[in-house]
Amino acid sequence: MIATVRGARKLRGEVRLPGDKSISHRALILGALADGTSSVRGLSQGADVRSTAACLRALGVEVDQGTVAGRGVSGLRQAGGPLDCGNSGTTMRLLAGVLAAQDFTSELTGDSSLRNRPMDRVVEPLKAMGADASWPPLRVGGRGPLHGIEYRPQVPSAQVKSAVLLAGLFADGITEVVESIATRDHTERMLRAMGAPVTPKGNGVRVERAARLRPLALAIPGDLSAASFWLVAGGLIAGSRIRIRDVGLNPTRTAFVELLRRTGFGVAAGATSEAAGEPVGWLEVAGASDLAPVNLIAGDAAAMIDELPVLAVAATQLPGTSRIEGARELRVKESDRIEAMTEGLEAMGADITTLDDGWEIRGPSRLEGARVLSHGDHRVAMAFAVAGLLARGETTIEGAECADISFPGFFDQLDSLTAAC
Ligand code: S3P
């Protein structure tokens, strides 16, 4: 699909976002291991979360609209063939942790983007725990019991941390993950809400074998990473006001909001409730003033890794030189996001230089509508849509359907926010 986005005069309205993708994956996977049926409202309807649901069904779990019939910690059964994780790294890496501990072997596969993403980062710790694990293709499980380890991931990754912690639920002794750079902690929060033995320890977290997990009764909050597109567009297009309801405000996910505020964006936030240990609230963006360039250094990127493509778009509108460094991980996401964003933003007239681990962007530039490519990457497609809203004329985004991976209805929501003016 080719999406056409025109420069917008202003964006106004109130929106609800798709259910948080990270929390949705975890609710399905942990729900499958619970003793009893979990009720999960507001699951992401995106293709990634549907991949997790399909894999769990292949493992014998009944997943229906809003319910997951947990089979207990030892209730999964071997799938009839390879498990198709589609485009979803979270599906593949988290399931690898659970399946490494089973007494049957599983093969996990996916689309060409996913098959080319690094899986040695989960294979290595799972092997250290005594599992049979190899890649490529990713095969795990089928060997006796695992044992706990202390693991210090080489790259900051919530997926790797989660894979090890999930394997730790089935391992003898203590499994501990020590992070030098903190990553999102949804797995830990949900496990605790389900009664699993999870304890923080310094920069680390420990888990022990779980005899049983309580089922969840959870309303999944909106996805803060999906909010990032509207925060940037609403902040940079004068006269806009966008209110976002029921959004997850987990502090391991809010670094981008804090960065926008420091940069001069008018973003207000408030907490309203809690869901399985996750804070939930609202956000409102209205204008920006005294904008300043951004300067991310090593260690800053992990806490806003999914927001960096749209941050690059924002940086084209900030006065001075923005540097976004320490983000080499972007090269091994659904596409090489560093190259993909440089290519499209350059075509739109931005002054951008690719760094090995990020970008240097000089602004503000007047963006011009252009034809750009999503590279099959949902966050790249949506970041270019925001660039299109900021640009003069018309931007066409090739391969825009991939927005459905995390944000079905993104382009309809964009239309509703521009139409209200
Ligand atoms: C995710 C972790 C991040 C993030 C991804 C979702 C998760 O990946 O980019 O969209 O749900 O754990 P990494 O763990 O590879 O950084």
What attributes does this structure have?
UDP-n-acetylglucosamine1-carboxyvinyl-transferase, Chain, 4-stranded mixed β-sheet, 421 residues, 32% helix, 25% strand, 23 strands, 2 domains, globular, alpha/beta, binds shikimate-3-phosphate
Describe the structure.
The chain is an alpha/beta fold and 421 residues long. It has 2 domains: 2-19 and 221-419, Enolpyruvate transferase domain (UDP-n-acetylglucosamine1-carboxyvinyl-transferase, Chain, Alpha-beta prism), CATH 3.65.10.10; 21-218, UDP-n-acetylglucosamine1-carboxyvinyl-transferase, Chain. The chain contains 13 helices and 23 strands. It has helices at residues 21-33, 47-58, 89-100, 112-115, 120-128, 158-168, 186-193, 224-236, 255-263, 308-315, 337-347, 378-390, 410-419, and strands spanning 2-6, 12-16, 37-41, 62-64, 67-69, 83-84, 106-109, 133-134, 138-140, 150-151, 174-178, 198-201, 204-208, 217-219, 241-248, 265-275, 278-288, 295-296, 320-324, 351-355, 358-363, 371-373, 394-398. The chain has a 4-stranded mixed beta sheet. A 4-stranded mixed beta sheet has the order 4-5-3-14. Strands 6-7-9-8 form a 4-stranded mixed beta sheet. A hairpin with a 2-residue loop joins strand 16 (265-275) and strand 17 (278-288). The longest helix is centred in the N-terminal third of the chain and has 13 residues, at 21-33. The protein binds shikimate-3-phosphate. Shikimate-3-phosphate is lined by residues 22, 89-90, 157-159, 162, 184, 305-306, 329.
